[in-house]
């Protein structure tokens, strides 16, 4: 866009979710090239975008299969032509009919478990309906959330329950979510190795006990971008890398100008004595996620940028009500803020957590390098 061309964003109602397509494509290429260099398959987690054109761009770059966080996602992406799908949330009995319906339609859906009780329910339901579910066992590699520790007795109990129950024991998977708490290259490399070693150890135990374990799946955006080697791993999963966000920026795996998702907002008022500009992007637009609050740099509800995506250093969305955002300067209040950010001015706000901010919108506006805009729908709900 040259100085003589109109701003393509000026006609959009705000707040609006923007995808900067050149940044997104660079992020996709960066991750895929790294996975190719490490010699593993890459299965992106589409819960970040929940958007078919984004997922298609990831597959076009070389990804194999996708990961989803809801069965509604699985159904939508299968309807849009994706067949190799991992539902990466622990399976409960009440959701098995949904999983069965997808598999009967032809979807190569994999499900996961981390308990004997869940494994037994899957096996019983599968036998009752003549379905051989492919099930992966979730491994706890860092004490962050779900999974079985690789040395626990329960690992082989679950494997046995699935295998002897007639299900296909597809492999093991893990997610080192505690990598989000780190911020040095050395710590990230160490966590990536911890994640890899734990999942490989679990796979080796399962195989040594006489059970199949073809897949060894690991991943988070920080560990995927930091792993020194992935011996014994067959595939990696990561999601937020496609857009990145301020949490990832604080962790150190991306620069601010790698962040491909932003919220377009308009200045609607001022409180000059407080050094505030008021914008129409509150927490309903940005989400309530304050993930940078516990990190070295707290960006409030987001980093303020000009409409071309240039960061305006020191200016953040420091507060938010439902439909009002408070834009202010970090440190000393800007008493000239009304002149700097006049009413009607459009701005972009980079989010703390791309997944959470994206979830506030039914669609994205995808902005190409030449200024062309497309509307891409986004999946909602469960």
Q: Could you explain the architecture of this structure?
A:
The chain is an alpha/beta fold and 382 residues long. The protein has 2 domains: 22-242, Alpha-Beta Barrel (TIM Barrel), CATH 3.20.20; 254-377, D-serine dehydratase-like domain (Lyase, Ornithine Decarboxylase, Chain A, domain 1). It contains 12 helices and 17 strands. The strands form 2 sheets. Strands 2-9-8-7-6-5-4-3 form an 8-stranded parallel sheet. The protein has a 6-stranded antiparallel barrel with strand order 10-11-14-13-12-15. Strand 8, helix 8 and strand 9 form a beta-alpha-beta unit. Helix 5 runs parallel beside helix 6 (153-164). The longest helix is centred in the middle third of the chain and has 24 residues, at 185-208. 49% of the residues are buried.
Task: Spell out the blueprint of helices and strands.
Elements: E1 16-20, H1 21-38, E2 41-42, H2 52-60, E3 66-68, H3 71-79, E4 84-90, H4 96-105, E5 108-113, H5 116-128, E6 134-139, H6 153-164, E7 168-174, H7 185-208, E8 215-218, H8 221-224, E9 235-236, H9 246-251, E10 261-271, E11 276-279, H10 283-286, E12 303-305, E13 311-320, E14 325-329, H11 337-340, E15 346-350, H12 354-358, E16 363-367, E17 373-377
Parallel strand pairs: 1-16, 2-9, 3-4, 4-5, 5-6, 6-7, 7-8, 8-9
Antiparallel strand pairs: 1-10, 10-11, 10-15, 11-14, 12-13, 12-15, 13-14, 16-17
